[in-house]
Amino acid sequence: MTDSPQVPEQWLSLLIGEVADVVAGGTPKASNPDNFAESGTQIPWLTPADLSKYSEKYISYGARDLSKAGYESSSAKLMPAGTLLFSSRAPIGYVAVAANEISTNQGFKNFVLPAEIDSSYAYYFLRSIRDVAESMGTGTTFKEISGANAKKLPFILPPLAEQKVIADKLDTLLAQVENTKARLERIPQILKRFRQSVLAAAVSGRLTEEWREHSSSQFPYENRELSEIIHEMRNGLSPKPNEDGRGHPILRISSVRPFSLDQIDIRHLEVSEKDKERYSLQPDDLLFTRYNGSIEFVGVCARVSQLNHDTLLYPDKLIRVRVDKAQVIPEFLEIFAASFEARQYIYSLVKSTSGQKGISGKDLKLMKVALPTISEQIEIVRRVDQLLAHADRIEQQINNALARVNNLTQSILAKAFRGELTEQWRKDNPELISGENSAEALLERIKVERARQKPAGRRTKVRKTEKLQNDPGN
């Protein structure tokens, strides 16, 4: 037993190895496809990857099964339903309850529980101590918790009746948390559609339709090629930048995103005075990505709203555009470049070279721009800025709420295992937590039963081998 002043006096603080058998897994030779079978057809088998992004409590099988030959040739062991499946490396702390007999690879340390411990309760407890388990991992390439250390994980043992009450309460509370989280996670997509609709309305004239009734602005808009409304289009510098601060700051390709220019994550480049003058950025310059590994970021545009460096250069996979301000303001062209029409034009002309996707300046110059009057452009920019700022505020509020919800799960688990969720229940049900129903009596029964049994790992391996040999279907 261990000391823990934070749990009710009716509970016991133990090491999990005092009440559960710790069973490791195994993997047959991966080079032999006959060692494996289609998921759900032979012997269920898990790897930690099967629990990645897996949110259910119970699991029946993984991405593939073991064949009888694969099972027999490996150290994998078939464990009973109710076993706690706990990943012990890459990463430490994924957990699920076996819904049926199941085996795992060596990336698990599994806990075979006695009948006197509710598996749902134990599942939630292991979730609550993931940080403790991670701190007990050792290794250089990746952290792993050994079988010996797995047995030393803490475990809180309430009376059995209270275990079930705690598990039921956590089922209800954490389901509510997950539902709230799911609703919040849908909102960014709604905001994305809202931003797209704002841009569509801006470039189509719908956003300023009422405004035009009180002005002399021309509509429909005149379509002009980009080349007709700019003074300059120039690719950036091709020499390789350095990371040690020699020369002048130069942007990365990833610095440019729609409506966003990152001037913090930069490198440096030594250049001549002539190149410094030619490739230095100025306020109101527009930057387009010429190449990127993802088509989503090819041709996206950001305006230099202000400079955070005395000199700021740009690399050759970015294109600098300087507009004719008598025809178009940079803010409006930045909006147009993010619109559906502009993006579809870009997508139609993207070419792939050595895994990189790109568009040429020549093709970019041919992009048709629906051009309102300067006065209407100014009004469009004002309205778009206002609406997108509103969306940004909402998104920040949602992100803050999601952070609180994510913390709420661990907070609820912590309350549960300090006894706070069942404080009143204990007062109302003293007979269910004392005498033969006490945690002390429960632990004694577990010890007696474990002393009578062989280690679960060897027993389940033999039992399953015999079952497979006797199965007429094999």
From TrEMBL:
PANTHER family: TYPE I RESTRICTION ENZYME ECOKI SPECIFICITY SUBUNIT (PTHR43140:SF1), TYPE-1 RESTRICTION ENZYME ECOKI SPECIFICITY PROTEIN (PTHR43140). The keyword DNA-binding applies. The lineage of its organism: Bacteria, Pseudomonadati, Pseudomonadota, Gammaproteobacteria, Pseudomonadales. Residues 384-411 form a coiled coil. GO terms for molecular function: DNA binding; endonuclease activity. It comes from the Bacteria. Residues 453-462 have a biased composition (Basic residues). InterPro entries: Restrct_endonuc_typeI_TRD (IPR000055), Restrct_endonuc_typeI_TRD_sf (IPR044946), Type-I_RE_S_subunit (IPR051212). GO terms for biological process: DNA restriction-modification system. Residues 463-474 have a biased composition (Basic and acidic residues). It comes from Marinobacter nauticus. Keywords: Coiled coil, DNA-binding, Endonuclease, Hydrolase, Nuclease, Restriction system. This is Type I restriction endonuclease subunit S. Belongs to the type-I restriction system S methylase family. Residues 447-474 are annotated as: Disordered. Residues 8-188, 222-402 form the Type I restriction modification DNA specificity domain.
